[in-house]
Amino acid sequence: xxxxxxxxxFPPEVNAPASRTFEHCREWVKAGHKVTVxxxxxxxxxGKVFDxxxxxxxxxxxxxxxxxxxxxxxxxxxxxxLLRILDYVSFMLSSVIGSLCVRKVDIVIGTSPxxxxxxxAFLSAFLKxxxxxxxxxxxxxxxxxxxxxxxxxxxxxxLEKVELFLYRKATAIVSVTESxxxxxxxxxxxxxxxxxxxxxxxxxxxxPREKDTALVAALRLQGKFVVGYIGTHxxxxxxxxxxxxxKLCKGDRQGGxxxxxxxxxxxxxxxxxQARAHAQGLDNVIFIDSVPKDEVADYWSILDxxxxxxxxxxxxKSVIPSKLFECMGMGIPVLHGVKGESAVIVQREQVGILFExxxxxxxxxxxxxxxxxxxxRQSLKANGxxxxxxxxxxxxxxxxxxxxxxxxxxxxx
Length: 413
Description:
Elements: E1 2-6, H1 16-30, E2 34-40, E3 59-63, E4 66-71, H2 81-99, E5 107-111, H3 116-128, E6 132-136, H4 142-146, H5 154-169, E7 172-175, H6 178-186, E8 194-196, H7 213-218, E9 225-230, H8 240-250, E10 259-264, H9 270-279, E11 285-288, H10 293-301, E12 305-309, H11 323-330, E13 334-337, H12 341-349, E14 352-354, H13 360-372, H14 374-388, H15 393-408
Parallel strand pairs: 1-2, 1-5, 2-4, 5-6, 6-7, 7-8, 9-10, 9-12, 10-11, 12-13, 13-14
Antiparallel strand pairs: 3-4
Helix pairs in contact: 1-15, 2-3, 8-13, 11-14
């Protein structure tokens, strides 16, 4: 079987879509299938092409048996709505053109968050007369409204019509959460063609380990209780809450200097967060730029607790941040500031403490509780790897491959 996968995020980028796509495709290759990925030059989230790559019309490479084709796109940083739309549309057009050069395809897959890649998958499948799968990672463009990046308008309503068109035209939809499936069914999409394959973790990469002593020394974290956020610094993540908690720490004369807040990653809000931390004298906050995927687990290891946080909106109750599963795999207790389906997982698996989103006081209390209760901390650490086994990427890739296999025999899109 030959699978054509369209995605605008792929390694060496290290965000959640890139990791999920790569790890699934790697397992499908191991299972004996041919996989071709069409993507763009790696640039997320800074908008700068990674070293060793160029933004050319056509580049190819082999990555763990996956044939990777990189096409040209207009590249912008992960900020500015209109520029990002131009980025998305240019990749959509280039990937459709690129797909015409990929022969003997059995099925086409397009992944969100933004749905222009799904548009490309629909067009490619139509031209090739093959079935296609919409992998739904985010309810977009509703998430634009949720973070305040765009107000309700004729343009937004038009995008939502295109969104529904794609759901209806997809041969199948693979959703990463049950909540997304319910959302689509409430909007009239046939539930029989929606499968749920959650995010997960590569347990061969993310597993319990001792703290990286070199990093601890380099960041001057000896003797500190280290709380960290690793991921995109975007509008949706509302990381100002972490700075607020750090500020509250500074005002605590009894043990306030014990805590350090580490924020690793890049994104549209990073510069503003750094400027605010500097202006407020928050020397207990450490900012670290994105690191290669092979180094991410080293940074996870230095954390005593991991923060997972999103804005307090109704839409984000349906989201399950993929970093939750990496924390499980590493055995790192989670401080979870997200309501909804992901909070249910944290409670069910007993891997962390819930706190009210965008409530810095609640976050700080959760940090202090975890620090002072050694028995609780050890219990949460032990539960993580056990729970991670239920979300192993190998198992999830096989589950999605079953869906692909059922559809690959269909000769018309």
